[in-house]
## 1
Amino acid sequence: MVAKKPRVVIVGAGVAGLAAAQRLCGAGGDRFDVTVVEAGARAGGRVLTSEFAGHRVEMGATWVQGIVGSPVYALARDAGALDPDPEDDGGLVPYERMDGFPDRVLTVAEGGAVVDADLVAKPVEDLYRGRSRRAVGHADLGQLPAAPAYQRRNTRRRWRRVEPRRAQSRTDTSADDLGDLDLAAEREYRDFPGDHVTIPGGYYRVVDRLVAALPPGTVRLGLQLRRLEWGRTPVRLHFAYGDAPALEADHVIVTVSLGVLKTSCLGNGKQDAAGAIAFDPPLPQFKREAVARLGFGVVDKLFMEVEAMEGDEGEPPVDFPFLHMAFRAHHVSEAPWWMRGTESICPVHGGSRVALAWFAGREAEHLESLPDDEVVRGVHATLDAFLPSSRWRVKRVKRSAWATDPLFLGSYSYVAVGSSGEDLDTMAEPLPRAEDDGGGHDERPLRVLFGGEATHRAHYSTTHAAYLSGVREADRLLQYYSR
Ligand SMILES: Cc1cc2nc3c(=O)[nH]c(=O)nc-3n(C[C@H](O)[C@H](O)[C@H](O)COP(=O)(O)OP(=O)(O)OC[C@H]3O[C@@H](n4cnc5c(N)ncnc54)[C@H](O)[C@@H]3O)c2cc1C
């Protein structure tokens, strides 16, 4: 008689879910019966590569945050995505920051006065450049001088750019209000050492690499988990659409975003959102409290195809500048409030006619609610305030909408005031806890395991956190069955 294989269902085909599946199917050999159920019509989750105006654009994950030892960098390299052949790639060579960051930016005050960035920003830049150089490649980042954690993280991530700024820290951390960041806990955050790079062939190649390593049919798209009965083994998974039969599993690895978990556990009026899961029985209090305390913010990207109109002063400008905007506290232009938290509009690479602005927090959420023509009007009012004589115009826009998307309900996690790194560990804790079942520690049945970026204490908010969390949960099962 052939022994029955343990059935493992992984919920979510983002980087975490795919990494868990790859590990179970790889290191586990043929020992597990693995299925990945994904509510959406594609794998990748918050990795979403798209095209716009002849460019490859990343709507979600953009950077590999430190290349030394990064599993995501290794996947991109092994997939040939660091040096893609344009012939095989639909001719799409241009990609975000393919030329790194320009040495000089055009810093302009609202109203159009060009500011001498050397006078204002250079000393600060030098200070942080030095500090971050020490951070990059440093074996024990905890020994660095104690700067506010969000700044350190900021400098590690963006040290080639000019001085650390509030808007950048908001997009780096996803916190709407920087006062909501627990700085002590954020100090535990780590990037990998080395450069931060974008992926020429597209971040999706990392996802494709993971999927390709799985047996055909492992990933099942369009299956949205609606109810998870986890009170006894086997665990039963019920799906949203009537004709999808329930599945039974010995173990379920949940990798949905913290935004989806918040809605699933805490309500907040969005329980009917497509991704929300009814846990039956409800998740225990310790888990719900960690879900509630941790922060999950919104970051969006707005891509704009720009063209220069001929002005009164003759020839239009050649290149769109790397524009750094210094808004005044007292508004002196028609730039709308939702543009005022954004400090730069820059070409995705030198000479490109595709410009990019990042948004965070309430401005990002508002941006998601606007029709395209209103977005274009708001950008025009802003460009008129900063480049009054250049007459750049936006032909069309493309933007992300991570807060509105019911399968994500936000962008990435942060440690909010009132939470701590321990909450990230709690997020990762499998269920039931031994005492819930009345069994001894060794009897813990590992019915529901948790992966995803918001379950990694040191690397949360990144793709490598997602990857490492998936591997961690797969290893938990491998270890369980090797006892
Ligand atoms: C704008 C933006 C920029 C970013 N930039 C970077 C960056 O530069 N560098 C970096 O490292 N990281 C970046 N990130 C973060 C990174 O993308 C994420 O941390 C990572 O991709 C998360 O992967 P995950 O597998 O944990 O979750 P997800 O990618 O969210 O995967 C979870 C999956 O679960 C699915 N799902 C949801 N509900 C259900 C359900 N009920 N049933 C079945 N399936 C369900 C979802 O559709 C999704 O596919 C960025 C993210 C955003 C949004």
## 2
Amino acid sequence: MRYSAFQILKEGITGNKGWKPAWREPEPKAEYDILIVGGGGHGLATAHYLAKEHGITNVAVLEKGWLGSGNIGRNTTIIRSNYLLPGNEPFYELSLKLWEGLEQDFNYNAMVSQRGILNLAHSDAQRDAYTRRGNAMRMAGADAQLLDADGVRNMVPFLNFDNARFPIKAGLWQPRGGTVRHDAVAWGYARGADSRGVDIIQNCEVTGFQMQNGQCVGVHSSKGSIKAKKVAVCVAGSSSRVMEQAGLRLPIESHVLQAFVSEGLKPTIPGVVTFGAGHFYVSQSDKGGLVFGGDLDGYNSYAQRGNLPVVEDVCEGGVALMPMIGRARLLRMWGGVMDMSMDGSPFIDKTSIPGLYFNGGWCYGGFKATPASGWCYAHLLATDNPHPTATELRLDRFMTGRMIDEKGVGAQPNLH
Ligand SMILES: Cc1cc2nc3c(=O)[nH]c(=O)nc-3n(C[C@H](O)[C@H](O)[C@H](O)COP(=O)(O)OP(=O)(O)OC[C@H]3O[C@@H](n4cnc5c(N)ncnc54)[C@H](O)[C@@H]3O)c2cc1C
């Protein structure tokens, strides 16, 4: 069923009895061409593009919980393409372009809202670094503007400019950045893939891989063994645990990141504002809640919940930047498990085991990557060659020394 204004009108006057479930609930078949492990944003996007762009529909997505139970339904919804390095920037710009046409592509309202993102600079050195980053973005076809302190003051006059420990010197502004309703992205991709014949199987945990002569030929799962010509893993925070079942160790650690939402307030914050010096970032949802976050919890964990010291730390950062939010009440908070790679950049690659593919290492920035990640992973699975914008996102880059050290802090994800 296609969604349209006409359909809403028709259902409205006929008692809303004709709506169909957005996707089926099939039992798994014995064999598929491609099995995707993990029904988060990246897995579902991969399935959608495999079916839509490559005509490969004998595909199943196996999800251990329900769609949206992972990071796709837990993130703070920010999209942007303000990266510096050549291995990353064109990839994230491809993603932003795909976001711009996504709702028409999968015929679903994902509330893509390009209200802009502002990174604040608090020292001359940081302003110079943002100038360099902005130039790199423009060279890759993205949009970027450097604002001086007055430009920032005009845009967000309520920040603490005058008595702050970290005075605001400038800002890097990307007008095309913004926010997207995160769970609608999972539902839209699921619906797009399902309508082309992909089986989406919820409550189906992959517990091992079937190997034959050193090749991966399927998986073992809580719904039985399923064969496949190719198995594509994209389980984000569970990457190390799942790939360990195939005997592979990854340059990835899992860490908790928390998100927070305040009570609804009048419209205050025009776009997304990030405060790197205090580790705090914030946007405002259409319902009025301030949606914000900050540091990782700082120790390795697979728990989808955080701890109180980081609540205090994040709120301190927020109050330092905009003292007036000290009077807002916190409504809810949650945690998600981040697949932190050692150079802050992701992987979309074949593994050393024929038939087994890997997508992960998204750190705390994989939501914005969802469309390009699905696009490039589908390309890799369909053609066995990396997509031109993802050639650097290789698993062997730590062996060859070709790291994409986006944040430059090496093997300490808590310092990214
Ligand atoms: C608090 C928070 C804020 C964030 N904010 C942003 C942001 O503003 N912008 C941004 O770009 N990114 C952000 N991120 C990061 C982003 O959400 C993730 O990088 C991205 O969602 C990861 O990809 P995914 O959607 O495929 O992951 P997930 O949704 O986690 O999907 C992985 C799926 O694999 C499933 N799975 C795991 N093990 C198995 C198994 N054995 N068998 C079957 N299925 C399995 C899980 O249940 C899960 O559903 C944030 C993350 C968090 C937690």
